[in-house]
Amino acid sequence: MPAQPLQFAYWVPNVSGGLVTSRIEQRTDWGYDYNRELAVLAENNGFDYALSQVRYMASYGAEYQHESTAFSLALLLATQRLKVIAAVHPGLWHPGVLAKFGATADHLSGGRFAVNVVSGWFKGEFTALGEPWLEHDERYRRAEEFIRALRQIWTEDHTELAGDFYRLRDFTLKPKPLTSAERPHPEIFQGGNSTAARAMAGRVSDWYFSNGKDFAGVTEQLTDVHRSAADAGRTPPKFGLNAFVVARDTEAEARATLREIIARADTEAVEGFGAAVRQAGRSTADGKGMWQDSTFEDLVQYNDGFRTGLIGTPEQIADRIVTYKRLGVDLFLLGFLHYHEEVAYFGSRVLPLVREREAALPDPDSAPTAPVPA
Asked: What is the phi-psi region of residue 61: left when phi exceeds 0, alpha when psi lies from -120 to 50, beta otherwise?
């Protein structure tokens, strides 16, 4: 079977402060009018998905936040083809309530709603809302139970669940979300870099989102997730990789922009975020939680987006993207400095080169894979 074309998503800037914690100018706005125009622009420039961020209160440069599920539905209704992924926290949502919202959003959008289940890194949001803050691996156990409940509610007539975190008694959801042979329910995405996250993704998720990684980091994660899926007797989830794109006409321009972003970083906000996320991941059983090896420079883009290395000319970025595809990446989740201008630039200058390079790749079922550069 020929390889599927790469897919592309963008981080929805529904949170103030942009996608880098820096005082550099960001011609990006967190308001709805800007985001409505951006969603239409993105779907007309080759983007398949948008991911709405979830924060419930001010933190680390994000003073204002629009709620992710409501914002996602608004973007779905403003577009024709774009699939929108709403990030949600187990512990702050009940799976039955989210399943109901998701079914309605799916009908209203013609089957374009998706969800990203995140275990949570910001302890202050949970404690401020009076919810318990679980240890790292317990948060992932809850998230896995949440996904199992969500899928059962969306696909079965009656749901019975006596779990450690959720109880459902003969629960029935009508109407169900829209379905097809390729999509039996709204797609379920999941993030996380830890051992617990990788194992969970292999067992239950449709998609696994990774923070920014180099080639070796992606290979390591793919190996772990595929092993977990094999142990569970299921097809591995598709793999999405976070990246921050700085595409310019020359490499010098792109590198200069990156240097300015880091030089003008909001030091207090970056260090505060770093302390919070390292605390959140420090309780992993093996010390492999998210952000545990992130440097100050990495954390200026708060999902390690610089580490993926999509910095340079359109040709350089396209080459690197297709190398990641050869490793097994299925989707790129992208952030930009000036969204409107740079999404259009990516669609017109970078994406055509990616498609050309994809077309030149050998059929994976008929030819061996060429060595991948280090």
From this structure: left
CA 109/CA 313 separation, integer angstroms? 36
**231 token code pair:** 């142990």
* Residue 177, both tokens: 């979300």
Nearest CA among 337, 341, 343, 345 for reference residue 264: 337
Taking the C-alpha atoms of residue 333 and residue 342, their distance in angstroms, rounded to an integer, is 14
Long-range contacts formed by 137-142: CB under 8 A, 24+ apart: 137/196, 137/283, 137/284, 137/285, 139/90, 139/91, 140/192, 140/194, 140/196, 140/197, 140/200, 141/165, 141/196, 142/90, 142/91
Q: Predicted confidence band at 275 (pLDDT cuts at 50, 70, 90)?
A: confident
pLDDT confidence tier of residue 286, bands split at 50, 70 and 90: low
Q: Burial level of 98, CB count in 10 A (0-12/13-18/19+)?
A: buried
Place of tokens 């067992």: 203
Q: What is the largest CA-CA distance in the chain?
A: 61
For residue 369, is pLDDT > 70?
no
From the list 340, 339, 342, the residue with the least C-alpha distance to 350 is: 342
Helix (H) or strand (E) holding 188: strand 188-190
Residues 6+ apart with CB under 8 A from 179: 185
Structure tokens at 360: 């030149």
Determine how β-strand 246-247 pairs with β-strand 311-312: parallel
